[in-house]
Specification:
alpha/beta; Rossmann fold; Beta-Lactamase; Alpha-Beta Plaits; 5-stranded parallel β-sheet; elongated; disordered N terminus; disordered C terminus
Length: about 725
């Protein structure tokens, strides 16, 4: 067999096998960006054929393919000439232990689940090539060693099965570290004296059985040299027969397989350990969780799972770069190991090895398993210690960085009996800790899981609601406080869920904002309101001005100008009839960008209103630098103004400020005649609230317009 030494300057070649064209092209782009040459195959058969012709160094192999699947393709490649040295990375959407184990049994070197981190894929490929090169060099060393031993009979020994006499070569004596004298001075017991004490009894028994039964054997074990160093030995023997087919000699050879053993351990490390921190990865963590569950069930004990997520870690990456972020993860990992290695914790939970307790799931997420827990107070104590340890300043690249963590805790068996459920519950508790202000811990409670399921269900249904036309607009009239007639309305979204009925906005709007679905909802509201309003205007009605309240989620990225312009153009409505309502918080996200957008809206002759005024920053600086058309006094001040006299001072001050700046003032939340008289007396221009009308469907709003309803002291009974 002849080895051709690779040219280390050559560009490495990767073979991508995937039946999905988009995935092939995406992986191709990622690997080319990382400096690889790329060849593509759309199925397993083509992949095997292309591998034979091109002999790539790396194979990215999809698992789920028609015909020959990824596991079969992997086995076929391994059986090809040169297939044993290629690095094979299985790519799949199947994120479970069984699929990973099957991939490694098929001969894969790595396993990655979709969705793929494209930026890291190229780095992963480079790292695997280094591992593959190391494995190839170890294999070459093993090949040369085997040939040398075969030619020179290095490390041989034999036992005469008739007399029981044992002989051993000088080379074997040196290899085993059992002395340097002549072979006649080495006995059978000496031959086994260097076997590690933990394995000696088992090895002696297996060798004795082979000698007694006159059969071949193959054993691998660890030996300890006199200097304390250890090596791994492969000891194999075969029986030689005489011409009468009687067993004559047991001929054996010892081989130093330390390099191969280290290679196997390195491959195992790559498969089961995180490359950045060296901690157990998700795959190994789930295996250990399963073992922990079985042990707890067998011994009738409990254990705790702590799920840690660093707070606002993305901000570190965005500010200082991913290199600093990675360095921070390593430092935090070391801090966690140090913290859980404290003697009081180790003794309490029966382990002095942090690695058996701590894992990195991925990203900035870590898990800790605390075995044999008898008291949740002890678990809480450890969580508090972790919260104290993590925020200490880390000096990285000249930057002093402090970061906190949120911890969710689930308990076995109270919170679940399988690994996935316990992990899910700990994750739910962790998010509850974040919602509670971060840098704290929360135990899982069943109601938290119910909330998580409810939220997921609503988030899923929101995506379908627009397509199924389940949203509708209600309109709450705005009343001019001089004429007491309708001068407009606020358009308010409602969701008529086919199973839940009317879902309150306060329940689904926050979910839509967090998931990013609020953007298409905002666009729909503007289009629907302008279309409805123009329909009424064209029918000769006088509905006044329609106000649309836009969510503040990523306001500057919502393409508000484009949305408003297209809606007005499609509805053929004059912009004077449209008012865009925003809150103070929108301005404070990025006052420069928000003010620029609102100025362009005013240039389009669209009115701008500041909603919920008085509850946010209420700064005169942006009111003087950017003049809105309307200020709406928040309903919380109006609704309780008769019970809380201080609210009257706030209402009066806002109205006086608006009058001095030439800004129209609308009082929200008017529910009683007394509240109405107060805001009229103080000089508010308009009002809206339940005293006049609740938000109503379009048909009911038309009835209000048709009746030309007038609200005043004479109409209290009608309004009620």
């Amino acid at each position: 067999m002849i080895y051709n030494m690779p040219n280390r300057q050559e560009t490495p070649l990767v073979l991508i096998v995937d039946d999905d064209l988009s995935m092939r092209l995406a992986m191709k782009a990622a690997m080319q960006k990382a400096g690889f040459q790329v060849v593509l195959a759309e199925n397993g058969q083509d992949g095997v054929s292309l591998f034979s012709r091109t002999e790539p160094s790396l194979v990215l192999l999809d698992v789920v393919m028609p015909g020959m699947d990824g596991f079969e393709t992997c086995e076929a490649i391994r059986n090809l000439s040169g297939g044993c040295y290629a690095q094979i990375l299985m790519v799949t959407g199947l994120n479970d232990v069984a699929s990973a184990e099957k991939a490694f049994k098929a001969g894969a070197d790595g396993f990655v689940s979709k969705p793929i981190n494209w930026m890291m894929l190229g780095h992963r490929g480079r790292y695997m090539l280094r591992a593959g090169q190391a494995f190839k060099e170890l294999s070459r060393a093993r090949f040369r060693l085997e040939k040398t031993q075969k030619m020179a009979q290095l490390g041989n020994w034999e036992i005469d099965l008739q007399s029981g006499e044992f002989t051993c070569s000088d080379q074997a004596v040196s290899l085993l570290g059992i002395g340097g004298g002549a072979n006649s001075h080495v006995s059978y017991n000496d031959f086994l004296s260097s076997v590690a004490s933990t394995e000696r009894d088992e090895i002696v028994e297996k060798l004795s059985d082979a000698i007694r039964e006159r059969r071949s054997f193959r054993l691998s074990y660890k030996i300890i040299h006199p200097d304390g160093s250890h090596r791994y030995i492969l000891n194999q023997g075969e029986v030689l027969y005489n011409e009468k087919h009687l067993p004559l000699i047991l001929l054996g050879a010892v081989q130093d397989v330390t390099l191969q053993k280290l290679a196997e351990e390195e491959i195992k490390r790559l498969a089961f350990y995180d490359g950045l921190t060296g901690l157990p990865n998700r795959l190994l963590f789930m295996n250990r969780m399963e073992r922990e569950i079985r042990a707890a069930q067998r011994n009738n004990t409990s254990f705790a799972l702590l799920y840690l997520d660093l707070d606002q870690f993305k901000r570190i990456n965005d500010t200082f770069g991913h290199y600093v972020g990675d360095f921070l993860l390593k430092r935090v990992s070391a801090s966690l190991q140090k913290c859980i290695h404290c003697t009081d914790i180790a003794s309490r939970f029966g382990s002095d090895d942090p690695e058996k307790m701590l894992s990195r799931l991925g990203g900035d997420e870590f898990t800790i398993i605390l075995s044999s827990v008898t008291d949740t107070d002890h678990v809480a104590m450890i969580a508090r210690r972790l919260l104290q340890e993590i925020p200490r300043p880390y000096s990285i690249e000249g930057n002093e960085i402090t970061i906190t963590t949120s911890i969710g805790i689930s308990m076995h068996p109270a919170d679940g009996h399988d690994a996935n459920l316990l992990l899910k519950h700990a994750d739910t508790a962790m998010y509850q800790a974040k919602n509670a202000g971060r840098n704290n811990y929360q135990f899982f409670r069943k109601e938290l899981n119910a909330q998580a399921v409810e939220r997921f269900s609503l988030e899923r249904d929101i995506t379908r609601a627009l397509e199924r036309k389940e949203f509708m607009l209600y309109y709450q009239p705005k009343i001019d406080l001089r004429s007491m007639r309708i001068v407009g309305a606020e358009a308010l979204i409602r969701w008529n869920h086919p199973e839940r009925g009317m879902v309150p906005p306060g329940k689904f709007i926050p979910i839509a904002e967090e998931s990013g679905q609020i953007v298409p909802i905002n666009q729909w509201v503007v289009r629907e309101a302008t279309s409805q309003w123009q329909e009424w205007l064209s029918a000769g009605l006088e509905p006044g001005v329609v106000a649309v309240n836009l969510s503040g989620y990523q306001f500057a990225q919502q393409k508000v100008l484009q949305t408003v312009s297209e809606a007005l153009q499609k509805a053929e409505m004059s912009p004077e009839y449209l008012e865009i309502e925003i809150t103070e918080n929108i301005l404070m996200q990025n006052i420069g960008e928000a003010a620029a957008i609102l100025k362009q809206l005013k240039d389009m002759r669209v009115k701008v209103s500041l909603d919920d005024f008085g509850t946010g920053y209420s700064s005169l600086s942006y009111l003087t630098s950017f003049k809105v058309d309307t200020i709406k006094i928040d309903r919380s001040f109006v609704m309780s103004c008769t019970e809380q006299p201080n609210n009257l001072i706030v209402i009066k001050a806002i109205i006086a400020m608006g009058q001095s700046l030439g800004i129209k003032i609308v009082a929200e939340g008017v529910e009683t005649a007394q509240q109405l008289e107060i805001v009229r007396e103080y000089g508010a221009d308009e009002a809206q609230g339940y005293y006049f009308s609740r938000p109503v469907p379009p048909g009911d709003f038309i009835e209000l317009l048709d009746k030309e309803m007038v609200w005043g002291s004479q109409a209290k009974e009608t309004a009620a």
